[in-house]
DNA sequence: ATCTTTCCCACCTAGGTGTGAACC
DNA sequence: ATGGTTCACACCTAGGTGGGAAAG
């Protein structure tokens, strides 16, 4: 079955805990950034384009972390957990995606932990998951969080035009298409 | 006196020593990359533009390091050591720089260790210096190297047009001016 | 036929060049 | 007048968008 790649990045902002540090990470807090934006996409079922050479995520997965020990070293690992066993299918012209029951494909579990060039199955739903590991003489898993808001269906082309519209509206790299839309509006208005 | 900034970067390639590592760094080797290119500039006295907001170095300071302990953490620090006490001055139209003796300006020592936005005195000569520090419960200075090939005079505008020509020839971001030169050659040739 | 993937493209963002006029 | 600095600018590099045709 088709396997494509999705470029992903974890951008994190570290906020040192209290001055003396907290070697136990008891008050660890991981917060999703741009949560409002993520929820806009989540509301209409988010999609992410995957390509052979890798594609950036938009919105970008960003978290801020507080409560770590400032004198320790940490690794941040990201993987994508299958959110269901369905192969999603585009039905009716209105652009809604619905789960196609009874055709569960043999899904591989998240391919371990890797920051870039992660293989995903197109038309399957994933939930990004973040691992925080304290690096030392022996590694210690500190946290293991994921956010429902960041779920998405991997696709090779957008299925829901509302998703396309949101991506164009908020991703500066799609500015060209935003301008095009505005020009069309303008022309329509002049014609009117 | 005028102080301007020079953006600098240390790009380094780490080559782990032998499999078992070398916690003593006894066989540490630091090699300057693009040494041939650096020597081309050195041969006619290199200049680097400094600006208020910072300017990249070209050539880029890159080193490859071998003989480190793969299980240790290292920091790479860069500073710029005054190479003499002269204020350099542009003399004769031929574009040569020569030292103006007897006007030594009070030079501050290298401003400690800082990777970006380093303040340099225009018209003074510097030699980049690299520090390698092993990060641990207490830091340990591992190495302290500099390369004569990378000496340069900080300037706010190029003084020697041969330097300008070399920068344009080898820096892809100055391609526009390379093309312009080629066009001029072409027009001259057509006219001829 | 239909669904899905791949490729090339125009059009952006983002930012690194030296130039030359203006400024001090 | 002279020497040095600053600024806006045209022109690049580098690479991220979705569209749409073509292919599978």
UniProtKB/TrEMBL annotation, chains A, B:
Main location: nucleus
Molecular function via GO: DNA-binding transcription factor activity, RNA polymerase II-specific; RNA polymerase II cis-regulatory region sequence-specific DNA binding
Coiled-coil region: none
KW Transcription regulation (keyword) present: yes
Single Gene Ontology BP annotation: positive regulation of DNA-templated transcription
Keyword line: DNA-binding, Nucleus, Transcription, Transcription regulation
Domain (T-box) ranges: 32-179
Protein location: Nucleus
Gene Ontology annotations for the cellular component aspect, listed alphabetically: chromatin; nucleus
Protein name per its UniProtKB record: T-box domain-containing protein
Organism encoding this protein: Nothobranchius furzeri
Portion of the full sequence shown: 34 to 225 of 323
């Amino acid at each position: 079955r088709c396997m494509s790649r999705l470029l992903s990045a974890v951008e994190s902002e570290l906020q040192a805990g209290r001055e003396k540090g907290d070697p136990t990470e008891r008050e660890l807090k991981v917060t999703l950034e741009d949560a409002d934006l993520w929820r806009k996409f989540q509301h209409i079922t988010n999609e992410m384009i995957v390509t052979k050479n890798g594609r950036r995520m938009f919105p970008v997965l960003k978290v801020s972390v507080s409560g770590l020990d400032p004198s320790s070293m940490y690794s941040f690992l990201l993987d994508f957990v299958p959110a269901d066993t369905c192969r999603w299918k585009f039905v009716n012209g209105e652009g809604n995606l619905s789960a196609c029951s009874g055709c569960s494909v043999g899904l591989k579990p998240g391919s371990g932990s890797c920051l870039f060039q992660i293989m995903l199955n197109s038309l399957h739903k994933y939930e990004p998951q973040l691992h925080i590991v304290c690096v030392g003489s022996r590694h210690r898993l500190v946290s293991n969080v994921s956010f429902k808001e960041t779920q998405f269906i991997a696709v090779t082309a957008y299925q829901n035009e509302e998703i396309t519209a949101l991506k164009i509206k908020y991703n500066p790299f799609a500015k060209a298409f935003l301008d095009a839309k505005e020009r069309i509006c303008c022309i329509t208005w002049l014609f009117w």
